[in-house]
Amino acid sequence: MARSLMQSIARERITGQNRTGAVMVRLLDGFGAGSLVPSPTPGSVWRVAAYLALYGPTARHRVAGELWPDATQERALGSLRSGVWRIQRELPGLIDARRALLSLTDRAAADVDEFVEVARAVLECDTYVPADGSLLLRHSELLPDWHDEWIVVERERLRQLRLDALDALAGRLLARGSFGLGLQNALAALGTDPLRESSCQRVIQAYLLQGNTVQARRHYEFHATRFRNELGVEPAPFRAALVNLPESARALAG
């Protein structure tokens, strides 16, 4: 399973790289399409491209309802037609409007797809380690300046996907003896969610496996204090076990 999954990802990468005239839709850390970087205004027609990049082929009435929720269906569909026409005029080859479902064309690709594929591969295959570890380490946020409800929901989903993948990858790397890389992944997760207990545990494990007992103790004490101050609760049981760090190191590493 591991080999077939990695081969599938590799084939998709090669296919995408060899596509001639490919148009990249950028959704991470801001919107862009090809060489265009449109302003993310609330009524921007480029939301159509962003929506299709996230959700794939979608019925017109569904896209119109999501992007213009306060308008009547007739008016929303009219706005959608106008938006698609404008996008096709400014960036031909991005949207396919010839079929019943709207979609990006075969020439178009979205940066978020690679992120999702790698994160899911980490979670679905317990031996997979991505060749490019920086993809998950980068704290990329989905369309940070856009506030549509459908974007907020998807942004949180991708955030949780990244955190779960970072945690899983950190544990995998630590088990393989790659303590430094495991620590970097655990710290990246903790930087995104400072109160994530599983990430805190991974960081402490990494320090202990590196032989940095003092740093592990500091990390434990800092986060134990933060939990008490921000949540009003005592550290979870695994943290209480860290009071005697040297004795706990073997159990945590296992």
From TrEMBL:
Gene3D superfamilies from the UniProt entry: Tetratricopeptide repeat domain
Keywords: Two-component regulatory system
Signal peptide: none
InterPro entries linked: AfsR-DnrI-RedD_regulator (IPR051677), BTAD (IPR005158), TPR-like_helical_dom_sf (IPR011990)
GO biological process: phosphorelay signal transduction system
Regions crossing the membrane: none
Domain Bacterial transcriptional activator: 110-242
Matches recorded under PANTHER family: TRANSCRIPTIONAL REGULATOR REDD-RELATED
UniProt protein name: SARP family transcriptional regulator
